[in-house]
């Protein structure tokens, strides 16, 4: 069933765990993400990132995401990930997304507040919840050989407190030491910062770049207060491994054999991520 972000994150707070948020820019990822949630009997968040618009337009995959969520046996929030401008946010709202992440993190503070407030005003009247970001988490979701050389800017707790108060957002994406995409070096998470943000902000904390972290770091971040983890690159990569395995054994004539193998491998990866995030 279609769910709001608040419903899913309230569940995570009650359980002391983190909700999984998977980007699903194609049908195989979508089936894998919801398949994993249904198998585990847990709520989930599926997302379309504006960055993936070139791969799959939101007008194409968005309605399929909403329809699949409505038919799911578990609560599913359908969310825009890293919305970059108001026009794109409106497109997601028009399709029926139940949550919006707006990312003005590379703008100066005042500009980030100004546009985030516009997004909140647009969304709250429609029962849609908003996540926004302060600080900066470098890298790109699922882009190979990313040329992004920008450094992480850790979320400052004083700025974050002001940002939440002035924008009225429902969840905060905090930059705490993770990166988007594939890790080239061991990430160094700032757990004290997570705990301080959790104590001071009063809104759920979101950690982006959640795939590729060690199980130990992931659980410690959740114990410190992370309630939503964006997980994508390594799940997508699991699909490639699934296809490689089939091709090593046989050479199927039809593409759907490869699509099924990818879906199965990505669902297994998503289930493992959800098991880790559930803290059970
Ligand atoms: Zn992200």
Automatic annotation (TrEMBL):
<dbReference type="InterPro" id="IPR000771">
    <property type="entry name" value="FBA_II"/>
</dbReference>
<protein>
    <recommendedName>
        <fullName>Fructose-bisphosphate aldolase class II</fullName>
    </recommendedName>
</protein>
<dbReference type="InterPro" id="IPR050246">
    <property type="entry name" value="Class_II_FBP_aldolase"/>
</dbReference>
<dbReference type="Pfam" id="PF01116">
    <property type="entry name" value="F_bP_aldolase"/>
</dbReference>
<dbReference type="InterPro" id="IPR013785">
    <property type="entry name" value="Aldolase_TIM"/>
</dbReference>
